[in-house]
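User: Is it possible to get a 3D structure for a protein together with its bound compound? The compound here is magnesium ion. I've pasted both below.
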Amino acid sequence: MNGAAVRGILPSARGGPGRPDLSLFVPDGYAPALAELSPAWLDSRGVRGLLLDLDDTLVPAYGEGLDPAAAAWVRACRDLRGVVVVSNNRNRDRVASVATELGVPYVHLALKPLPTGLRAGASLLGLPAREVAIVGDQIFTDVLGGRLLGMHTVLVGALSGAPRHPARRLVRALEAKILAGASLPNVTAGGVS
Ligand SMILES: [Mg+2]
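Assistant: Yes, that's possible. Here is the predicted structure of the complex:
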């Protein structure tokens, strides 16, 4: 495959001479929290199923409990759309307990951004990638993984706020640098743009 063909399959060409194309890392939309994501926006894009990240999307990364607002949002939309929790977390009990509480299936040790876990999630939904949205708090796992498979991608703010570990702080800094130059549609219920 030559360079022109590769560029042709990317979601959009934002690169140029001397500027890397970062579009694989830029989500279709952003909401400060899962609970603020607009169901109407999902409908407008033909999304019939959701793959939800676990840590810092449904549960604070440094906590145990399912975020009450996120749980309420999932329960409200669960009957209209399929929902699967897809987590890179290797702790099966942690992933399973949240998924069970929400009444949805799960994939743990998903290895995002590799396609395996996200494909397994879409298979559980019984939907093609174009009808699936991945929602998560990290662009190098959730957004990139979804982009590579042609899914809709939504970045949400992390539930636990500023990370404690230096490696996580570095990742957040890289994410901020990439997103600083990107246009990020607001896809909250009160402000779809
Ligand atoms: Mg996460």
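The pocket of magnesium ion is lined by residues 53, 55-57, 136-138 (CB under 6 Å). The first strand starts at residue 29 and ends at 31.
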